[in-house]
Amino acid sequence: METIRFVERFIVYIEDHLRENIDFGEVLENMGVEQKSFMTIFTSLVGMTPSQYQEKRCMTEIAYEVYQGHRRLVDITKYYGYRDIDAFKKVYRRTFGIPVHETERHIKKMDLLDYISFEVVPTKKPKYPSYRSFVESFRLIGIAQYFDINSYQPDYKYKFLKILERDGLIDEILRYNDGFVKGIFVQERFIDGEMEIFVGTASYQHTPFDETFTESMNYEIFETSGDPGAAIDKVYEYIFRRWHFREDVNMTCDFSLELIKPTYSFEDPGTKIQVWQALDE
After folding, report:
1. What gap in Å lies between CA 269 and CA 237, rounded to an integer?
2. How far apart are CA 201 and CA 178, in angstroms?
3. Torsion of CA 223, 130, 180, 169, to 10 degrees
4. Phi and psi, residue 77, nearest 5°
5. 100-111 pLDDT, tens per residue?
6. pTM here?
7. Cβ of 5: how many Cβ atoms within 10 Å?
């Protein structure tokens, strides 16, 4: 429950600095918090990253001000730190699906974020089948992509996956899959101030691709199926909101590891997925 209290305190910090350009990486570093771990936990509990939360809260406050009509739009947006009115309008439409001038007409139907709350209920019946296994470090070959920690969003890794699939690179990577685990791994971790997404496969061969190595650890391996973009997030939500409150384990969250076993496409509902949650035991 201490983790939950820290997330709640961090939300208060965002609220206190809502109109500022928060450098989340620097704030977490000053707090002595491992950034990948916090991003995973925050996103699983809240349903969005800290930067997404700040942006939606700002858009919500602006929507209320526009609806009340006491100040000009240009003054409102400047107050919330948006100097480019056209850029602001794009963010507003992306957030609510309507142009800002239609706010008054649609205010009651808009997906506004007044406060954040998340349900935490220890599970009694497992939602996903899982098993525990110690796995020695093994080599992955594939392609890495890097993102700024402040602008990073969870769906970036799924977009990256689909780009690689579209360009035929997933099939090319799988040609070298001669390791003991079959399928495509997605590893997410924080390195040198950036979020690294590594998409690859277990292989012993010499290849033209990048290489990395997994951690030797105990893993709780959860199984599901479906489109990775939705299915994986639901598993992590289950792990952090329900599963780990019943289990007497400490979780390692400074990296995440998922295994995808696609058929003809990642979007195939029959795509088998494993979420490898590392345990600190």
Report:
1. 20
2. 9
3. 20
4. -65, -40
5. 999 999 999 999
6. 0.82
7. 9
